[in-house]
Design brief:
The N and C termini lie far apart (103 Å). By secondary structure, the protein is mainly alpha-helical. The radius of gyration is 30 Å and the shape is elongated. The chain folds into two domains: 50 residues; 81 residues, no CATH class. The protein has six helices and no strands. It is 73% helix and 0% strand.
């Protein structure tokens, strides 16, 4: 019984089918490429626009003094987020505060703990015991930052 040529194509059959398969694959690839350009290109442009806006915002951030930093930290420490959205807003404000500190002459004088406080908002949100410990340490840092020069424990 001869083999079924539909199940077992010959070399000649494959040679004839190759251009058709290539054309079909090429057509699908073209459709996929167009779809990706239509969908992804606007997203890339939007992303680039947001990155550029963030760069401009960071360039325009003013430096911060010790007294201003103490006031900002005191205000932020009173905010206890009750939702993920509030947490996101708080994290964004803490990020901006960190950038302002980095641009300032006081950057080297800021207590190391302040950097932990800036980056640990999510942990404080999830773990109240951790939050209370950080709040206590932050109050000490605020007193130190807000104290007149030469007497870090007054006020």
């Amino acid at each position: 019984m001869p083999p079924n040529t539909a199940l077992h194509p010959t070399a000649a059959d494959l040679t004839l089918a190759r251009p058709r398969v290539s054309a079909i694959v090429g057509c699908y690839m073209s459709i996929i490429a167009r779809a990706l350009r239509l969908v992804l290109l606007p997203l890339w442009k939007e992303c680039d626009r947001h990155v550029e806006l963030l760069r401009r915002e960071q360039i325009n951030l003013p430096p911060i003094s010790k007294t201003e930093l103490a006031q900002e930290l005191a205000g932020l420490s009173r905010r206890v987020p009750q939702s993920k959205a509030e947490l996101s807003r708080l994290e964004a404000e803490l990020f901006v505060l960190g950038e302002r500190i980095r641009k300032s002459q006081i950057c080297g004088e800021v207590p190391h703990f302040v950097w932990h406080y800036i980056s640990d908002a999510e942990i404080r949100y999830k773990e109240p015991d951790y939050a209370s410990g950080q709040e206590e340490t932050l109050r000490e840092c605020i007193r130190e930052l807000g104290a007149p020069a030469g007497n870090p424990t007054s006020q």
